Amino acid sequence: MLVEADVMKVIEKMYGPDGRKIIELLLKADNGKTIDEIAQETGIRVNDVRRLLYEMSQEGFVAYLRSQKGDSLWYNYRWYTNTTMLRNALSKRIENVIKVLEERLEYETGTSFYICPNDLSIYTFEEAFENNFQCIHCQADLVEFDNRQIITHLKELLKMLKKYNSLTS
Ligand SMILES: [Zn+2]
Fold it and tell me: Are residues 59 and 105 in the same domain?
């Protein structure tokens, strides 16, 4: 199981210290909190609280319950979270990163790249071929670009993320 300290560190990286403060407050609230309560108890401006809650809800880190205020037309929104929600949201996020990296790895592995020694423009094999292996900006001869290091790096990163994600679920 991923320890809570790690989850909080990632949340702080994604949403800043204010995002972390909000999550910490909501974790302690049994019955959720309204935006005004969160602003009052953390000292974060109402607009920032609203923006952060919205951003965090997009990724499933927080959610709200809506209840009617008595007989009025007004609604109460109480925001909440719990450790399961946080872990699931983080896990989903890591899965997305893995997907992007895997696509990139496939691209890097399946194509050779060419680079202009003057202005460092990068061309795929097809692009270089179409231009007779010359730079379209300065006509210099292109050199084949060694992307083995990028591939190795991507593979290591993927291995690490997959291991990390198997710990969260
Ligand atoms: Zn060039």
Answer: no
- Domain shared by 34 and 105, yes or no: no
pLDDT digits (tens, 9 = 90+) for 13-44: 999 999 999 999 999 998 999 999 999 999 99
Residue finishing a domain among 20, 49, 81: 81
* Dist. CA 61 → ligand 1 center (Å): 46
- Measure the CA–CA gap between 141 and 132, rounded to whole angstroms: 9
Q: How far is the CA of 148 from the centre of ligand 1 (A)?
A: 23
Segment 92-122, tens digit of pLDDT: 988 998 999 999 999 888 888 999 999 989 9
Q: What span, in angstroms and rounded, lies between the C-alpha atoms of 22 and 13? A: 14
CA of 127 to the centre of ligand 1 (A): 13
Q: Separation of 115 CA from ligand 1 center, angstroms?
A: 8
